[in-house]
Design a protein that fits this description.
- The structure is a homodimer.
- Chain A is an alpha/beta fold.
- The first copy, chain A, contains 12 helices and 13 strands.
- In chain A, the strands form 3 sheets. In chain A, strands 2-1-3-4-5-12 form a 6-stranded parallel beta sheet, with helices on both faces. In chain A, strands 7-8-6-9-10 form a 5-stranded mixed beta sheet, sandwiched between helices.
- In chain A, helix 11 links the parallel strand 9 and strand 10.
- Chain A is elongated and about 90 Å long.
- Chains A and B meet through helix 4, helix 5, helix 6, strand 2 and helix 7 of A and helix 4, helix 5, helix 6, strand 2 and helix 10 of B.
- Strand 2 of chain A pairs antiparallel with strand 2 of chain B.
- Chain A binds a DNA duplex through helix 2 and helix 4.
DNA sequence: TTGTAGGCGTTATCAC
DNA sequence: GTGATAACGCCTACAA
């Protein structure tokens, strides 16, 4: 039974029609008489032919129906972040009408590591690529992709001149949160940032630190626009547990304890609140906490974070739309989303 | 500039070699003299050729380097579940050596819904498919895939005879948890199950309910092996919040309140614990709670769930291995993983 | 409405 | 180490 699988020509022959006719029956691009159609279908059934081979079709059409999504770091942890999940939902939704599905890819590993056989932006049969953030390594492999005329979009990152971006007003938004705290009279404020890099070290930021992640840098800048001297502590990861650890560190010393914490994500904020509770601090009476993202935090009730709501799903959809435009040879446009300030019950006026 | 993109033949011509030679330079499958190699590379550089077109290569090779992962329901919510995330990590890891990446697909929508252009198992250029669970709808589209000789594996589901399965000893494992509670003297026990179906209705199970999800059914059976009459409440989703809601319902009435709750997932267990706390119940003194999965629950500390630890990552890896075997024309074997009982601090002897 | 022809870009095979 | 040849399986003009 190592016999060759049936092709559309086999089917056509069996049905007594031309291959092109059989093709048309399957693609439906051209009207076909009912008689021919059923002849062909019958022959296909007979031969166990289940439709055109997608590989061949994709060569012929020049489209594979696959859009790559490139993450930094391990895939599993990419989905730890609720914002990413929503973004993926939006993206899925937006590429579906293009007849496309999402191929998960990650950052090309640095030279040293086992450069396995894993597929990459350049070896996978993709129609377009969406980058989630853009590390320097990634940036280099981009050229080849663009040289091929494959549309690329970057979400929350900077991939250089030719690449349209979907971004957030991170700095302005974070500044608004800071202003809100300022308005409440807070003066001793600490910022808890997203993870600095892949090493995911949890520690106080130093002046000398060069922050490479755009989101982190921009949100930090926004907070510092209002509180130029606020110390910042980098969490190990944007999770509740990461926030709790950061919270413990930040709130440890009663002498230097801040009256408000600006967290760069809702999950971090949730963790910080938990750390505060551990220490017997009441939120918001003893400590105000702001988040960022505006996602539902599983298990945070009864708190409702004061936070910046970002349109995560819309970001994904927008990326899809940009790709659709580029695939269509229309001019892509970068897009900047604006966060909405949402007042919750985790911030209050500073008590004297 | 609508000029055709350079092909490998163009490069070969420019370099003054045969196309096959140029091909070999890029694939590295055959030794090539240093001189030829650099001639070819130079020509490629010159023409802006960045390597073979993956679409053409995949037609020629008969491999696309793409493995489909089919989820039930929206993608974003698939990743809500930490177990799925770990599984995906394992899968990613296991298919990388195959030179493959993962294409996200979801259940074919039922006839009614907008049957968009979205790619499907049959239209995407895939080398293999991994099903996460197996709904009846899905089962039907499987035939076509298998007819093409595309390897298929199902994780936690039953896709019929020819499809190898990666599964868990759900029933036995859950039974062990129940026996543990029984050993502690618990008699009034309630089971909180995973969501029943897509409607995600939160409610008490009725005898007439026909549970279609294998995992849910098997775990329930395991619990009922020990507590045949234990009432069961279906949560709306396997989340902390879903567990909290279920917990409130289940613990509401002091008269009928159970002394132990068997939750079908760790997240549910975490939520139930939270609900118990709300009601002023102490865990484990007033209420014992068992989970299932053995995943780290973000923000659950200081509790450590008594739970069944499943090797989520290993499941993914196993699925990858099975696929590798099938792609290699070796005989695939179904695999059953065994959960390990882990004693935490959320169960205790019933107090009289 | 159906058939003919040609090529999409690559690579496996085999001879040289 | 290099080159010629022949598919891989399909689809789209275009002609009939």
């Amino acid at each position: 039974m190592t016999t060759r699988r049936a092709t559309i020509s086999d089917v056509a022959r069996a049905a007594g029609v031309a291959p092109s006719t059989a093709s048309v029956v399957f693609s439906g691009k051209t009207p076909v008489s009912q008689a021919t159609r059923s002849k062909v279908l019958a022959a296909a059934e007979e031969l166990g032919y289940t439709g055109p081979d997608p590989r061949a079709a994709s060569l012929r059409r020049g489209r594979s129906g696959i859009v790559a999504v490139v993450f930094e770091g391990p895939l599993g942890s990419a989905f730890l972040d609720p914002v990413q999940r929503l973004m993926m939902d939006g993206l899925t939704e937006a590429v579906a009408p293009l007849g496309a599905g999402l191929l998960l890819l990650h950052d090309p590993v640095e030279a040293g590591e086992a450069s396995s056989e894993a597929p990459t932006l350049t070896t996978a049969p993709i129609d377009a690529a969406v980058l989630i953030g853009c590390s320097p390594v990634l940036r280099s492999s981009l050229e080849a992709v663009q040289a091929r005329g494959i549309p690329v979009v970057v979400i929350e990152g900077d991939a250089g001149e030719g690449v349209p971006r979907i971004a957030l007003d991170n700095r302005e938004a974070q500044r608004r949160a800071a202003e809100h705290l300022q308005g409440l009279g807070h003066e001793r404020v600490v910022i808890v940032t997203l993870a600095l890099d892949k090493r995911r070290e949890s520690r106080w930021l130093r002046g000398s630190d060069d922050i490479t992640v755009d989101v982190t840098r921009d949100r930090l800048a926004g907070a510092r626009d209002v509180y130029p001297d606020a110390p910042a502590f980098a969490a190990s990861s944007s999770t509740i547990d990461g926030g709790t650890a950061a919270g413990r560190a930040v709130l440890a010393d009663p002498a230097t304890r801040p009256t408000a914490v600006i967290a760069q994500s809702d999950l971090l904020a949730a963790g910080i609140i938990r750390a505060a509770e551990e220490l017997g601090l009441r939120v918001p009476e003893d400590l105000s906490v702001t988040g960022f993202d505006g996602i539902p935090v599983d298990g945070l009730a009864p708190y409702e974070l004061t936070t910046l709501v970002q349109a995560a799903t819309a970001k994904g959809r927008a990326a899809g739309a940009v790709i659709a435009a580029m695939l269509d040879e229309r001019e892509p446009t970068s897009l900047m989303f604006t966060c909405e300030f949402r007042l919750g019950n985790t911030t209050a006026a500073v008590t004297t």
